[in-house]
Amino acid sequence: MRETESGIREFEGDLIAGVDIGGTNTAVGIVGDEGRLLSRSAFPTTDHETAGEFVRHLAKTIRQLVGELPPPARLCGVGMAAPAANWRTGTVESPANLRWGTVDLVSMVRGEFGLPVTISNDANAALLGEMTYGVARGMSNAILITLGTGLGAGIAVDGAIVQGENGAAGEFGHMNMELHGRQCGCGQRGCAEAYVSATGFKRTVFALLAERLEESELRQTSFGALTADRVSALARTGDVIALAALEVTGRYLGRLMANLAAAFDPEAIILGGGLVGAGDLLMEPARRAFMESALKRYTATVRILVSPSNEGQMAILGASRCARQTGVTAEAS
Ligand SMILES: [Zn+2]
Questions:
Q1: Is the pTM of this model over 0.90?
Q2: 179 CA distance to ligand 1 middle (Å)
Q3: Per-residue pLDDT tens for 207-230?
């Protein structure tokens, strides 16, 4: 072990498993020093009826990956990331798409390995990954927004990831953007997630198709068959409805970022997730709306960045980083 500048003792040369538990797939990576991802694997989360079955499969996958590495490979901890994970209690609360109820995944995984185990919210883990190894490296104040099926977010203020009283800080997806707006999955109306997410984007496409008369290939597609990637691809060929949907989505995103800048005064807002694959067709209206809506002091200082990393990699690296830090601290105390 060694002492870092921040006084946190870290493992050196030892391995941490970083696990990103998604509603569909679970990605597992074995991470060495300096965030080197040495090997990775994935399996469907939903194949497992109970959390116990899932944990046994996860442990087997981790052992397999470590076993394939050249000696002296030694596993020293497991860091997990999941939606609705509570960092303080170690539990995952009724994860979406899974019928596990509230489960203490940390205790269960610790039972398999007898090593330090941590869990954090997936967006917080991705932000820690970006701040340690990615585009936000060296930053102390940053916000990460992930635009996937829903809208996930992580906040760092003065160098610390903001957890909140119950580990539930950063639910920007449920900030109100429209007083009498679209119904959201949470039961409220007008939430940001109902507009700024892959699902919200699709809803915008259908609203535009109903409102406007221009020809569009999108008129041939059902809601269920439509993907955000398909709309982005059509936008690049000049489809007017696809372009207008990206413009509308980008404007909501820009206003949301202006609100967040006012709340947190970040150095950067980092955007990740499938929807940012639309590139400048989304980012240009988002930046424009940010410049129009945000206070001048923020438009001059806040950088809007797009995470270039592979889907899910930053959550694996951030989760491993979290275990490397807190695991050792807990062991020492
Ligand atoms: Zn909501």
A1: no
A2: 12
A3: 999 999 999 999 999 999 999 999
